[in-house]
Write a structure and sequence with these properties.
Blueprint: H1 3-6, E1 10-12, H2 16-26, H3 32-50, E2 56-62, E3 67-73, E4 77-84, H4 88-97, E5 102-103, E6 105-110, E7 117-123, E8 131-136, E9 139-140, H5 144-155, E10 160-164, E11 167-168, H6 170-179, E12 185-187, E13 189-190, E14 193-194, E15 200-201, H7 207-212
Parallel strand pairs: 1-12, 4-5, 4-6, 4-8, 8-10, 9-11, 10-12, 11-13
Antiparallel strand pairs: 2-3, 6-7, 14-15
Helix pairs in contact: 2-3, 3-4
This protein binds 1-O-pyrophosphono-5-O-phosphono-alpha-D-ribofuranose and uracil.
1-O-pyrophosphono-5-O-phosphono-alpha-D-ribofuranose is lined by residues 83-86, 108-110, 115, 117, 137-146, 172, 198, 207-208.
Length: 215
């Protein structure tokens, strides 16, 4: 069965530039500087896919030659919500495409023993009902952190949430689908499985440690 049939909530961005950069990102010999730059570039490329259904509205403009009906993104304001820490590495790349997006933050870490997320920070803009939220986290492993992030944003009033990640495990995609079937997942890769410590295989290791040099 194809990945699209198995995981109807999932979009895998198969563009050659994305896959090329993913190969560099995963490589253990890639430097911290290189890793940061790649996360940034990949996030910008994935944002193109994550925003492809934003509604448009007609607008009348004057080109240097004549008046025309053009189209601009309508109504709902995009709000990015990076999951601390590793999601922070994705913010600037997306903001390069959408400089006026708002940015909320959610602090979660995985308990090492249970692998369940522990909340430590939450702040999103008011007026959540009228916004399009994009949760940013490079890794969707068990799905506990992503699901908790989406729940918190929905509790804050959001009606439209999607998740952008770089590497997803089938276990995480399915947990998110079970707990939040309305939330689309956009990823650069769907990997094979989790290991016994909840790390994605083949994966790229600990995204936060590789971004911030903390191991
Ligand atoms: C990583 C990653 C996700 C989470 C994914 O963060 O950035 O938030 O793990 O795992 P899950 O799908 O099993 O919940 P981590 O908990 O290591 O926190 P950190 O970025 O602060 O190191
Ligand atoms: N978090 C990471 O940073 N990497 C994994 O493989 C799983 C969770």
């Amino acid at each position: 069965m194809s990945d699209a049939k198995k995981h109807p909530n999932l979009t895998i961005v198969a563009h050659p530039l994305v896959q090329h950069k993913m190969a560099l990102l995963r490589d253990v010999s890639t430097s911290k500087k290189g890793f940061r730059e790649l996360v940034d570039e990949l996030s910008m490329l994935l944002a193109y896919e994550a925003t492809k259904e934003l509604p448009l509205q007609p607008v009348t403009i004057d080109t240097p030659l004549e008046r025309m009906e053009a189209r601009r993104v309508a109504g709902k304001k995009v709000t990015l919500v990076p999951v601390l820490r590793a999601g922070l590495g994705m913010v600037d790349g997306v903001l390069r495409l959408m400089p006026s997006a708002r940015v909320g933050h959610i602090g979660l870490y995985r308990d090492h023993a249970t692998l369940e997320p522990v909340h430590y920070y939450f702040k999103i803009p008011g007026d959540a009902q009228s916004r399009e939220f994009i949760v940013l986290d490079p890794m969707l492993a068990t799905g506990g952190s992503a699901s908790a992030a989406v729940s918190a944003i929905k509790q804050g009033g959001a009606a439209s949430v999607r998740l952008m990640c770089l590497v997803a495990a089938p276990e995480g995609v399915e947990r998110l689908r079970a707990e939040h079937p309305d939330v689309p997942v956009i990823t650069a890769a769907l990997d094979r499985q989790l290991n016994e410590n909840g790390y994605i295989l083949p994966g790229l290791g600990d995204a936060g440690d590789r971004l911030f040099g903390t191991k």
